[in-house]
Structures are given as C-alpha cells and as structure tokens.
Design brief:
With about 450 residues, this protein is of the alpha/beta class. Helix content is about 35%, strand content about 10%. α1 (about 20-35) runs antiparallel to α5 (about 150-160).
C-alpha cells in the first residue's frame, strides 16, 4: 500500500498473466512521482516488481534537452569533458594558440574526434526514468520519462498490430496457393483437398477458408460450391444487463420507499424509442406532473450515449437547475441504463440525481412516458429509420407534441402547464418553444 498521505488506492487483486490496465499505469506514474520502489508499486497493483521494471523500460520515452538559442548556449555533454585538456582544435590562425580550453567552446563537439556524448546513469539503473529526479529542472541532458497515457496508447497500438495480417511467410503462402487454388478451381471441396494434402498444408481448414475469403489466395469464394449461397454468420453481441449488485438500493421498492419518505419529490421517467434495429434511437424524458417531454437523438443503444445526453443536459442548464428538474429518474432495465452510478454522478463528480429501475416486464410503472410515445409514432411510425433525422428535426417534433392539448389536464398543453413550475430560462436552453394551436402538425410530413 501507499504510505500515509500519498493517497494511493488499492485496486482489486489482478489475475496472473493479466495485462496492465490504464489504471495500473496511472498507479505506476503516481508511484514514480512519489519516489516509491518497484516493490511498493507492485504491492499496490498486485504484480511482481519485475513487471513494473519491464513496463517502465519498455514504454518510457526520451525527451531531448531544450535547444537554447544561439551556438554559445550549447552545452558540452562530452563524457571526457572533466579530464580533457585539448586546445586549439579549431586552428583559427597559423601560429595562434587559443587560450580557452576546447571543452569550454561550443565548437568542441563538432571538431573533436574523441567526442562521445554523456548519458545519464539513470538510463541503466532503477527507476530508469527522470520523473521524480530532484535535478530534473536544472539538468540540461536529455531525459527519460514515463507517462501513463502515452504508455497505454503504445500498448494498444502494439496489441492491435500484433493481431493484424496472417501467421505465415510469403513463400509459404505462395506454395499454399499453388497447391490449393488449382484444385478448388477443378471443383474439389476444401475438405477433400485437406484430407489428401494434410501434411503439406501448414494451417487448419478453417484458416484456408479465411485466406480465400480475404483474397490471400488466387481462388475466390465464387469458385467454391456453396460459400456464396450462405449468409455470413454474425455474432450476436451480448448486451450488458443491469447487475443485481448495482441495483441494490435502486429497485422499484426502494423508489416507492423514497417517495413515501419524501412526498412531493419531482419524478422524471426515462426511456428510449427505436426506429429500425441497429439504427439511431431517441432517448426520451417525461415529467408525469405535466407530461412535458424531451427527446434526444443518439447513435446506438450503448450506455455511453445515454450518459452523454444526461451530461449534456447538466452542462446546458447547470448543476443546480439539473438537481431541481431531475431529482429522481425512473427507467427500465435496458442495457443502455445498466450502471446507475454513471447517471447519478455529475460531470464534476457531484451527485446530481437518483436513478431507480422499474420491475421487469412492468412498463406500466412509467406508463405516462409509454403513453406519450404514441405521439412520436404519429410523426415517426414504427419501422421508420431515424438515421436521416437531426436533433433540430427531433426538437421540432417535441415542440409540436408538447403544445398539443391534453384532456387529462382539462385541455391545457404540457408546455403551458410546465411554465407554471419550471424555470423559463432552463426550458429555453433546452430548446422548448410554444407552437400555436392551429399550427400543430402530427404527421410524418412535419419533418419533410
């Protein structure tokens, strides 16, 4: 662990052979800054000191010393500088001997055959970098530094490049092509070819199919009997579900209990509306007290997109107004809302709201929002793609919906009802406007 006052954080125990993460590299950088030994840093991360040593030496970078203006400011960094007594290397004039020792002259490094640049001993001994060196500010030599962001970026690039291309030499590929391609073009199945030339083929049958599909061989998919008739298999991505551990304190029973203890607390319902599967979506919000709705266009059903919308609203109206309008958010168990902490924590780390989940298959628990989605379907019928929409068009549709009279409010519109209790400036910042009654248009051609 870190010594008292340094502020390290003990992460979960790492599995043996696991790659270092960005958080691990941040711990290494912090440890170097605070003069910790490799063993102390290794204890925090949960690995061996040798792993820390290799990580630093592999991902450190060299920063050349600052080039000061003018030749006279150049630093003589020759390793023999202290013992050198050479004079008159420049040979300015015949018979003239310069009284200044060459090691004090800026031309020495260019003229002397014995010049060898001095290297800092830290290059070859722990900690191998100058991150916490006390002489760093005055040292004029080049520096080796370790930066967690640069190290992790370099690691990701190495990881990516190591998985590119094919695991076979050019000569082996040519030999494989000369063996397989003519037989495929004769109509022979790959299984037949592989069975009769197993010792000559340096890869698996599945790899042969991949080489053909990626055009590494002269044979093509069209040369095989059934390949082009089959649809390409697609892996079904597993969408993250709301963890039961993370739902503790966020279930619908907890929501009812909180409302009972804090009567009159404003509630906001949140959901998403899908156009066509795999396309863009709408993230919607509704206040049941007045049926005022917001809608934002998002690229995909990923949690990063839905959190980004919440961050945008906070940034637009400010944290205090956000707390006033969004004290409680009630949503469903969709993967796009899987981590309540990401929604509850503000941009600056301050708690901005409370997130609760409806019970599974009980959409009626946020029935006002589900019912209000009917108005969206008037303008955007089911199976309509949202990919060509813009946020401006979505906002126009929302303003028409919010300006439509509701029988449940005795003919009053959601936006007029909201103006009685909501901050007008906040509503304007969110793009909410009143549409005149006779101009309300709830047909698909509204967005044409």
């Amino acid at each position: 662990m870190y010594p008292p006052g340094i502020g390290g954080k003990m992460p979960e125990k790492r599995k043996k052979g696991q790659h270092l993460t960005w958080e691990n590299r941040q711990e290494i950088q912090l440890g170097l800054k605070n003069h910790l030994s490799f063993a102390a840093i290794a204890d925090v991360i949960g690995c061996s000191p040798d792993t820390i040593s290799k990580e630093i030496r592999k991902h450190r970078y060299f920063k050349e010393r600052t080039k000061l203006a003018g030749n006279y400011n150049r630093v003589n960094d020759c390793k023999y500088k202290e013992k050198c007594k050479k004079r008159n290397l420049c040979n300015k004039k015949k018979g003239y001997h310069c009284r200044i020792q060459c090691k004090k002259c800026y031309k020495c490094m260019d003229l002397c055959d014995a010049y060898k640049p001095h290297s800092c001993p830290i290059e070859h001994k722990a900690p191998y970098v100058c991150n916490a060196c006390e002489k760093s500010s005055t040292c004029r030599y080049g520096k080796y530094l370790y930066n967690a962001n640069c190290a992790h970026h370099e690691y990701l690039e190495t990881l990516k490049s190591s998985r590119e291309g094919i695991d076979i030499t050019k000569a082996e590929l040519i030999e494989l092509d000369e063996l397989i391609s003519p037989l495929i073009k004769m109509g022979q199945p790959i299984a037949h070819i592989y069975e009769n030339h197993k010792e000559e083929i340096p890869c698996s049958m599945r790899t042969v199919y991949e080489y053909i599909d990626k055009c590494y061989l002269s044979a093509r998919n069209i040369d095989m009997h059934r390949t082009v008739r089959y649809k390409k298999r697609t892996k079904q991505e597993k969408t993250p579900k709301v963890s039961s551990r993370k739902k503790l304190g966020h279930r619908h029973n907890d929501f009812l209990k909180y409302i009972e203890e804090n009567p009159g607390t404003r509630i906001v319902q949140m959901d998403t509306v899908e156009g066509v599967k795999g396309g863009k979506l709408l993230q919607t919000f509704l206040w049941p007290e007045n049926n005022l709705m917001l809608a934002f266009l998002i690229d995909s059903k990923e949690m990063s997109n839905t959190v980004r919308v919440i961050d945008y609203i906070e940034e637009t109206i400010g944290i205090e107004e956000f707390k006033e309008l969004f004290p409680i958010i009630l949503t469903d168990n969709g993967s796009e809302f899987a981590d309540p902490e990401k929604f509850e924590k503000g941009i600056n780390g301050e708690k901005r709201t409370r997130l609760y989940y409806c019970e599974a298959r009980h959409s009626e628990q946020k029935g006002e929002l589900e019912k209000n989605h009917e108005y969206i379907r008037y303008v955007l019928p089911k199976k309509t793609s949202f990919d060509e929409l813009t946020q401006e068009k979505v906002q126009l549709m929302v303003n028409h919906i919010n300006s439509t009279s509701r029988p449940k409010f005795n003919g009053e519109t959601p936006i007029n009802k909201a103006l009685k209790s909501f901050d007008k400036n906040a509503m304007e910042k969110l793009g909410l406007e009143i549409i005149l009654p006779d101009e309300i248009h709830l047909k698909p051609d509204l967005l044409m």
